[in-house]
Amino acid sequence: MLPVNSTTDKSLNLLQRPRRLRRTASLRRMVRENTLTVNDLIYPMFIIEGEGQKVEITSMPGCYRYSVDLLLKEIAEVSELGINAIALFPVISNHKKDDTGTESYNPEGLVQQAVKAIKQTVPDIVVITDVALDPFTTHGHDGLVDEKGNILNDPTVEVLVKMALSQAESGADFVAPSDMMDGRVGAIRQALDAEGYINVGILAYSAKYASAYYGPFRDALDSAPTFGDKKTYQMDVANAKEALKEVELDIVEGADIVMVKPALAYLDIICQVKEATNLPVAAYNVSGEYAMIKAAAQMGWIDEKQVILETLTSMKRAGADLILTYFAKEVALMLL
Ligand code: PBG
Fold first, then answer.
1. Which residue has the higher pLDDT, 222 or 239?
2. Global pTM?
3. If I label 36, which of 43, 143, 145, 288 is the partner at 20 to 30 A Cα–Cα?
């Protein structure tokens, strides 16, 4: 066998050799453009009634519904790991649901109780509460429904305002309207200000698509719509310019942070939104994105840890400043 000739006499005369910057781990770290940190993460968490309850969500392995007592313990751990913020989602028992979602603004409701307890025990963690009716309605839609099955916009906004106010009253730092009704950000901002909650922020689900990736979340909440779909209020998956219009409206109406949801199939939208605004941009790495990785990892088909980090880094590279992700705790542990 001839020895491999590594002398320079036969090398191409290249002035640029990009591989020079990839040669060692130190060099790669030096020129790395985007780095995922624990400060980027927001942890969505599910709450159930009762005490001593921790129930795994079948289609989201590793995610649990916690009763408030155990939720507090989990949040203390999460905070210890350096995660700055959580987003809360309640699982409401069926007998408390009705057509108009009145439980959503019950001052003693599950979310309201949880927020008060969190603020007493882990006061520093940023608490974000979801504003939408689907966990509270018998029909599972995010808004009020008329006799023909239409989702009513303006009457829904009135209920959302009550809901946001009761969350602010309980001590929420941010309210996060995820319903996609027109004008809700402005109505909520005005109401919060009128009641003196000028420092309660709005994380707006601005470009929220009518996505099949929400399936496991609807299992978690038992909130799948009993009829129809959400396509008259959530966005058409084929649209990009419309996302910019929604973002622009939410900014004009008073949003503090704008969000794109889902994230992985919408990296182009994250990128465009980031270019269109100076506000922080959040991306929601949703339940179906989580479930796909978990399922493939359980089958032994992918390297779970590497795929999680690659996926979340791709969202940062696209322009996300913040990522809501069910992987938050796992990632915080990986980044320690
Ligand atoms: C409902 C809401 C949904 C999610 C967050 N808030 C589901 C939906 O719109 O049907 C989905 C989150 C996820 O899939 O992880 N307002």
1. 239
2. 0.96
3. 288
Atom of ligand 1 nearest to the CA of 179: 16
Q: Is the beta carbon of 286 within 6 A of some atom in ligand 1?
A: yes
**97 labelled catalytic:** no
Q: Among all chains, which residue has been given the structure tokens 């700055």?
A: 84
In the predicted model, what is the mean pLDDT of residues 23-44? 98
pLDDT by residue (tens digit) across 188-208? 999 999 999 999 999 999 999
- Provide CB contacts within 8 A for 270, sequence distance 6+: 260, 263, 281, 283, 315, 318, 319, 320
For ligand 1, atom 11, name the residue with the nearest CA.
Answer: 214
Pick the CATH number of 34-334 from 3.40.50.720, 3.20.20.70, 1.10.3720.10, 2.30.40.10: 3.20.20.70
